[in-house]
Amino acid sequence: MSNGATTRPLVSLLAMSVLMSIATACATSETPSAQPADATPAPVEAKAPERIGDLVKVEIGAAGELFILEDHQIGGFDAVHFPMARIKYETGSPTLPRNVENEFLGLLEQSLMDSAEDGGFDVAERSGPCVLRVQVAIEDVNITQRSRTGATGDWATLTFAIELRESLSGRALAHYSKRERIMSPGTGENRGELILANYAAILEGIDLPGMVSGVTATPSPARENCEGSIARISRGEEG
């Protein structure tokens, strides 16, 4: 079964939501509500931001979680590079047939590359000093039912993750993740058919160009010997 022709247009979903939300999250700040002049402000207990290593969580107006390095310099890169996407199962979970894994990950990689090119970004074939690595992964995959099912309900859960890194040093700059549930329609479809049939749902709301544009919405120091093409494209400027 091949869904390439029907799912590729869905890749445009990767080009428009999470990352635009990131732009809002990075570029706006909350304004405190007005209080009467004689009101005594209630004590505010400082809460440490959530972190993944050096990355700090920022709020986005979409599903999923985004963590970014405060001094990320993502806008200073000139191109993006996509290493091979990967899939990782939870311990004890049944696995998908290798051909289904390859087809799904192939669709995913091509979708992301098409999305980046459609967004005006240069796609590099290898790492380099001015190249941003975009690592895509399907993680924590837990298939809850075997090959065929006659009942509706959860069939699998997984986490869709995108990580932005400096391509040479491997330094993490941003990490986005979105938890997904794949529901069984109770029609007896096999595992391969279900994962491919849910391809669009897994990608829904994921927007790679939007994410890159979003995290570059705030000022970022220039990178040495790079032109900063990503920031220029994100601002809608001509090359």
Output the keywords.
nine-stranded mixed β-sheet, globular, 239 residues, disordered N terminus, Rossmann fold, alpha/beta, 9 strands
Report the helical percentage: 25-40%
Q: Using only CA atoms, what is the Rg?
A: 20 Å
How many helices? The count is 7
CATH topology: Rossmann fold
Please characterize this protein's 3D structure.
There is one protein chain. This protein has 239 residues and is α/β, with parallel strands linked by helices. It has one domain: Rossmann fold. 26% of the residues lie in helices and 26% in strands. It contains seven helices and nine strands. It has helices at residues 4-7, 18-27, 98-118, 191-197, 199-203, 208-215, 229-234; strands spanning 51-52, 55-58, 65-68, 79-81, 86-89, 122-124, 131-143, 152-166, 172-185. Strands 1, 2, 3, 4, 5, 6, 7, 8 and 9 form a nine-stranded mixed sheet that branches. A hairpin with a 6-residue loop joins strand 2 and strand 3. It is globular and about 45 Å long.
